[in-house]
Design goal:
Strand content: 15-25%
Keywords: Isomerase, Lipid metabolism
Structural class: alpha/beta
Largest sheet: 6 strands, mixed
CATH superfamily: 2-enoyl-CoA Hydratase, Chain A, domain 1
Catalytic activity: a (3E)-enoyl-CoA = a 4-saturated (2E)-enoyl-CoA; a (3Z)-enoyl-CoA = a 4-saturated (2E)-enoyl-CoA
Helix content: 40-55%
CATH topology: 2-enoyl-CoA Hydratase, Chain A, domain 1
Organism: Arachis duranensis (Wild peanut)
Order of helices and strands: EEHEEHHEEHEEHHHHEHHH
CATH architecture: Alpha-Beta Complex
GO molecular function, one term: delta(3)-delta(2)-enoyl-CoA isomerase activity
Shape: globular
Distance between the termini: 47 Å
Strand order of the largest sheet: 1-2-3-5-7-9
CATH class: Alpha Beta
Number of helices: 11
Number of domains: 1
Enzyme class: isomerase
């Protein structure tokens, strides 16, 4: 599941997992909780709002709940469970890409597969350097890449070499490497310091008091291919009178 804290104009969304899941796997309940929380945040947004997402422990999220999928009665049922998670996470990615405020992923630890996708849907990615990797294991697991995953990674990772290493080779990227690759904005030496740095960045962004809908429209205009796959329409340019 997830929790939401509000400090002035800053929203802090924390992945808490379901039951005793310390890896914050994205099962149906967690995905539904994320979507409803993001809807609430969008509804409460005002100029100066900023979202930070983080999690407890050594994991940001290790992706879809494959354990739950494999508990199905048959292989076909397991595949259906996995497909349902793929389908239900797509609106979460769309919600992050259309959220009317700057967004910051404060990675407290490992972000893998759908957890990695969740991170790069944010405007800024900050990561701890003592623990944690970014990892797309689909090539190792023998799983195809969903279309909106591919679109988001193409949009956020512009280097073909980095894309090949991350998506086609399944390399595990630590924070310093992520900064060098242009995936991570900054690296910090502990979970506490990455959250503190995210708070400082959020406060700096909040002072700009940007109009949320305009900010969201500009974001979407930067990533038209991803937004098309996410079914997010781009608004026509309206020039106001001077």
């Amino acid at each position: 599941m997830c929790s939401l804290e509000k400090r002035g104009t800053l929203f802090i969304l924390t992945l808490t997992g379901a039951d005793s899941d310390d890896q914050h796997r994205l099962g149906p309940q967690v995905i539904a909780s994320l979507l409803s929380t993001l809807s609430r945040i969008a509804a409460e947004a005002i100029p100066g709002s900023v979202l930070i997402t983080t999690a407890h422990g050594r994991y940001y999220s290790t992706g879809f709940d494959l354990i739950w999928a494999r508990k199905a009665e048959s292989g076909a049922a397991a595949a259906n469970r996995l497909q349902s998670m793929v389908n239900s996470l797509k609106p979460v990615a769309a919600a992050l890409m259309s959220l009317p405020m700057p967004t910051i992923a404060a990675l407290n630890g490992h972000a893998a597969a759908a957890g990695f996708l969740l991170a790069i849907c944010h405007d800024y990615v900050l990561m701890r350097s003592d623990v944690g990797v970014l990892y797309m294991p689909e090539v190792d697991l023998g799983l195809p890449l969903p279309d909106y995953f591919a679109a988001m990674f193409r949009s956020k990772i512009r280097s073909p070499t980095v894309m090949r290493e991350v998506v086609m080779s399944g390399v595990k990227v630590k924070a310093a490497e992520g900064v060098r690759m242009g995936i991570v904005d900054s690296a910090h030496d502990s979970a506490e310091s990455v959250v503190e740095a995210s708070m400082r960045l959020a406060e700096k962004l909040s002072r700009r008091k940007w109009v949320g809908n305009v900010y969201a429209d500009i974001r979407k205009s930067l990533y038209p291919d991803a937004c098309a796959v996410l079914d997010l329409p781009l608004k026509p340019l309206l020039v106001s009178k001077i």
